[in-house]
Amino acid sequence: MLKIFFNLYVPNQLIALEYELTKRIELIKFGPPVEYVYSPIEYALSVHLNFLNKYCCGTKNILFLGMNPGPWGMSQTGIPFGEINSVVNWLKLSGFIGKPQKEQNDRKITGFNCKRSEISGRRFWNFFKSICGNPENFFKYSFIRNYCPVALMDASGRNITPAELKGPEQKRLRDVCDKALVTIIKLLKVEKIIGIGRFAEQRAKNVIKISGLSTKTLWMPHPSPRSTDNKNWNDKASKVLNDLNLIQFFTKTSDICTEIVS
User: Fold this and answer.
1) Which of 50, 60, 153, 214 is the most exposed place for a label (fewest CB within 10 A)?
2) Which domains does the chain carry?
3) Pairing, β 62-66 against β 192-196
4) Percent of the chain scoring above 90 in pLDDT
5) Nearest Cα to 249, choosing from 207, 209, 218?
6) Tens of pLDDT along 66-115?
């Protein structure tokens, strides 16, 4: 009974943490070049909650940490690296998706009707589909979230990453995102964080050092085509998992939630 209660408790805690983080980021007064702030945890809340209820029913050994939502991924679906086909046909998620308060004309939110495919998300989930078989085997020991769950864009719709921010805006964003990350590490009892890209790795390292946690911080290349020297990303990701002796956590066996509950 205690295990079942814990399984129900974790998603509720996570959605409260992510929603509070979203609202805190929205309170930051971003100056130019930031013109648009998209909060998918807010307008795609039901999809994200379904994601948590389905795939985060207990503690996690590994946390994959992305940077922030892309325009054709999480911004559309509310799911980290949330490429449409992967979210619908592999993760099997659904739910209501609304609109941001202020919408950029070239970055309209159409949710599951979006015709664009986010390359980063497609690469990430297709890779793990190839080695895990089903999503339950990916989420048995691991989970994934973005360091910053809010998308920032300039007037033209160009994505502005947290790494590009300057001055007091940068500090305020990092302060609230760092604090949320510490809380989530403790809640999920994470033993290893894999930063997807150098920015996520560095933020995780900073958080671990300041908080005094024993969590190990690791790195894998970001699947974005914008990343330098990023051809054959599948081979690079596979090598990282093998070199770090983590491939054992991603096998085509068992079912996560039924095992934990029983």
Assistant:
1) 214
2) 2-261 (3.40.470.10)
3) parallel
4) 88
5) 218
6) 999 999 999 999 999 999 999 999 999 999 999 999 999 999 999 999 99
